[in-house]
Design goal:
Layout: E1 2-11, E2 14-24, E3 29-33, H1 40-48, E4 54-62, E5 65-66, H2 72-78, E6 80-83, E7 90-94, H3 95-109, H4 117-128, H5 135-138, E8 141-142, H6 148-162, E9 166-170, H7 178-191, E10 197-201, H8 205-208, E11 215-220, E12 223-228, H9 231-239, H10 242-245
Parallel strand pairs: 3-10, 3-11, 6-9, 9-10
Antiparallel strand pairs: 1-2, 1-4, 4-5, 7-8, 11-12
């Protein structure tokens, strides 16, 4: 599904990603962990196509297509979803209108007919149950006046509505209390199928108690320096990163 080879990227002339290699297959959940400043959010942003970042080397294939050649909207239409660390507010744009427009463009790209109003409302009702989000939120402007937990639940609601084949969740657990974390993580787990995949970027093991990864990768100084199974997250919780990164600090 996703094949990343020797990916280098910079921002404002400073190289952040220094040769990332990663393969993600359908049905898999990958967790990316690492200290602050390692390049985790940069990696997510490069996959999503944010123009602040410049790819200087490497290749990214998404379902056999060159992801780096696609504009942002095409990446979304192809089935890539980015869950933001800090979701933005969009005053004056209701959640219903926002999602109806997004889904309409996605279906048009795939050559599918537009949903009727009744079909769309039925979908909203079904998907909102996944993250326990009520009409008091879905009827408001996108994220306007939402708490941190509500914004994150809203992100997963959008993910459920758009039904991506690859979701990249950038520190979805940031700022969540334990109840909001459970709701968000349960929603992500509920949406997992054999046909889609998820990349979870996180600092903490606690999220991975709910979203169990198939693989855990440690990103440090712009490179993935270690990969293992879900047990690696538990080891990092106990031992920190020093035992893995000590050989890289002199670079």
């Amino acid at each position: 599904m996703l094949e990343v080879k020797n990916l280098h990227a910079e921002v404002d002339g400073e190289e952040i990603l220094k040769g990332i290699n990663l393969t993600v297959r359908a049905g898999e959940v990958h967790a990316i962990m690492g200290p602050n400043g390692s390049g985790k959010s940069t990696f997510a942003s490069v996959l999503a196509g944010k123009d602040k970042y410049t790819v200087t080397q490497g290749e990214v294939r998404f379902n056999g297509k060159n992801l780096l050649e696609m504009p942002i909207e095409q990446r979304a239409w192809e089935g890539l979803f980015l869950g933001f660390q800090y979701p933005v507010e969009i005053p004056g744009v209701s959640m219903a209108n926002f999602l109806k427009e997004a889904i309409g463009e996605q279906r048009k790209y795939k050559g599918l007919p537009a949903l009727s109003s009744a079909e769309f409302l039925k979908m909203m009702k079904e998907k909102s149950k996944i993250v326990e989000i009520g009409s008091n939120l879905t009827s408001r402007s996108v994220n306007e006046g939402f708490s941190g937990g509500e914004k994150k639940r809203n992100e997963i609601f959008q993910m459920a509505m758009l039904d991506p084949i690859l979701s990249v969740l950038d520190e979805t657990d940031s700022g969540l209390d334990i109840d909001a974390l459970r709701i968000v993580a349960t929603g992500v787990t509920h949406l997992k199928t054999a046909q889609n995949a998820t990349i979870v970027i996180t600092h903490y093991q606690r999220l991975l108690d709910y979203i169990v990864p198939d693989y855990v990768h440690v990103l440090y100084k712009g490179r993935i320096i270690h990969s293992a199974g879900k047990e690696l997250a538990l080891e990092l919780e106990k031992r920190g990163y020093d035992w893995l990164i000590k050989d890289y600090d002199d670079e």
